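Minutes, project huddle
Topic: does the predicted pose make sense with adenosine-5'-triphosphate bound?
PN asked that the exact inputs be recorded in the minutes so nobody has to dig through chat later. Recorded below.
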Amino acid sequence: MDHSVRIALIPGDGVGGEVLAEALPCLQWASGQGRRMETIQLPYGADHFLATGETLPEKAFQNLRDGCDAILFGAVGDPRVPDGRHAEEILLRLRQGLQLTVNHRPCLTRPCPALEGRVPSVDIEIFRENTEGPYCLQGSTEPGRAVDLAVHTEAAVRRLLGAAFQRAESTGHSLVLAHKANVLKHGHGLWVRIFEELRREHPRVAARGMHADALLCALVQDPSHFGLLAADNYLGDLISDLCAAYIGGMGVAPSLSWAPHRPFRCEALAEPVHGSAPDIAGKGLANPTGMLLSTALLFRHLGWEPEARALEQAVADALATGARTRDLGGDLSTKAMGRAIRDRLP
Ligand code: ATP
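Predicted holo structure (tokens), as shared on screen:
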């Protein structure tokens, strides 16, 4: 992108603001490298909801959709809003409203003392559908019965799998579709049908489907057999948290959601895989690594490849030399970990 990029910052709740604060100097650093950008900070989250009753007002959503290029998002979820209504209305509205079908979650081992000898090295990328499946929030609770609908549309499945096949072609990774079409005959049946179609169109990609239960077993036994994994919203959520364990847990796992068909100006949202972690919020204990790696994914999406690589390398160097927060067995605060990474930027 040659024009000035407009990035919306939504810290959200809990540790969201703490980790997002560590990404801001990286944006300034990219700006110093000649990348033109402006940022706007938005207040949406539990505090704003409790003070005003607003979650994500329609006007604010439209301004984001049509006036920004991308979003850097912290996390939402707060024990003061037990039904999670504000979180749903903010994050799901953004994912669904912006049609951010593809949620890309790379899990690449970056050597660090906390992992040595404990878990195998992995280089796995998860492509998780981000807007549908059982997370479409349609259902009902009736006396003696509860229903959650899972909706899968051909358009979204095709977009997600199309992006996964494209990525497999460019990286040379094999591609596995996780599904349960043996029981979920309609929804996952659709996934398998489209997967088979695309498999025929991409003869160079080593692609196969696997029942998700067998896949999870194989992933635990030997993750080195796997490269790219594609799944619906629900299975993708579970599989990506499992894979995050191989790279150091929730604090280090990044994600980028995007809309391959580019329906709106705002076409990408970077956020760490973790949630708002209320148990450690406000204590300076959150690991900002997942947020910074998500920022690197956003840089790459914007076409800022040198900055993306430099930030990923800074994370790798910091981890390799023993910088770690408590979740990785160390004692650095969120800010100190952020600084340790930034100090390694060129
Ligand atoms: P969500 O449903 O929004 O994904 P969750 O209920 O899965 O959220 P998280 O907020 O991700 O929960 O937290 C899960 C666990 O991981 C908690 O014990 C939390 O402290 C830990 N955790 C999450 N993020 C971080 C982080 N950045 N650094 C260290 N630990 C974290």
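Observations noted during the meeting:
- Residues 15, 19, 77, 250-251, 274-277, 279-280, 286-287, 290, 327 surround adenosine-5'-triphosphate (CB under 6 Å).
- The CA atoms of residues 127 and 230 lie 5 Å apart.
No decisions taken; revisit at the next huddle.
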